[in-house]
Amino acid sequence: MSNFTGMDIQAVRDLATQLTNKAGEIDSLRQQLTGKIDGTPWVGADRERFHNDWSSRHSVALTQVADAYAALRSEDPARAAALAPADSTRVARALEVVRSTGRPLAEWQQQRVGGIADSVTLHPAILLPPRAWLYERCDRRFALMLDRGALDEVAALLARGLDPALPVMRAIGVPECAALLKGTVDRAEAERRGAQATRNYAKRQYTWFRRQPPLDWPRVESIDYDLNNLFASLLRI
Question: How many CB atoms are closer than 10 A to CB 202?
């Protein structure tokens, strides 16, 4: 415990309380939804299928999320505090790291060592075009996906009856195309949602490339550049 010398004990206790409350909120939500589903006056085969799907899949998933978050709260409280309890992918990843290495994810993120930089000749260039230009391309990209077979691909996924919680079923464009195929949204709304999801992803990647690579790597923030001249100049550095 020497690494925690001088820590604010009350602040740590308050943090533990907050984490406990978040995990409890997930399980409370699961119980509330179960009660409402069981109490809904709905009969017929559709009701049975929905009830069975909730009991065997979604309710179990919420229980697993709550349990995973509670485990992370115990094993890596700092990371748990930074994550939403329902962010199952990042919660699972943080648990994997701390359990397989004995060290929390934050320690690995702060330790910038290793790699192959000393054994290769690297001439990097990070392209950071104006965001308005980038977002317009994101919008066009998703519209083209819809026109060029994305709906057929998603229809094939849906036909396989895969668990909606699987990463492939949550990939950008899949939920939006699935909603369009099921008739819950029209083409315009599906396109709007898919374009926004693409923009959100591009924004995260943009932020990562701006902040994470070494500061001496050149950033190209214009769309008016000649690729050949750019790399020719890098080779002269």
Answer: 17
